[in-house]
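From the shared-data thread, chain only:
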Amino acid sequence: GITRPRLPANNEVICTLHDTGVPELARELGNTRSAVALEHWREHLEGSVVVIGNAPTALFYLLEMLDAGAPKPALIIGMPVGFIGAAESKDALAADSRGVPYVIVRGRRGGSAMAVAAVNALASEVE
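Structure, as tokens:
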């Protein structure tokens, strides 16, 4: 996992996938839990590092949120994995990052382990 002691300023790690109300919101919005869980991040987005390691739908949804005027993170680490939507979601970020710096792994490769490794590597550079 993310090596929290390496994070500068004792940064909080937020994962909202299992928050109360996420399944209901997913049904209401007609999207995946991974995507709509980002709604619970909205107040934390400004200046944050957003890390998406599994769900392409979450990366697509983040881009939609930014298009709709959501606060901009400082960095997007987009590494969803899989055959359906993974490459396309990363290509969409690379084509228009909405002015946000980003790190991606092109193609279908990615996943939580790679996303966490990217966070830990960046945190190690800060040390």
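The domain at 4-126 is CATH 3.40.50.10230 (Rossmann fold).
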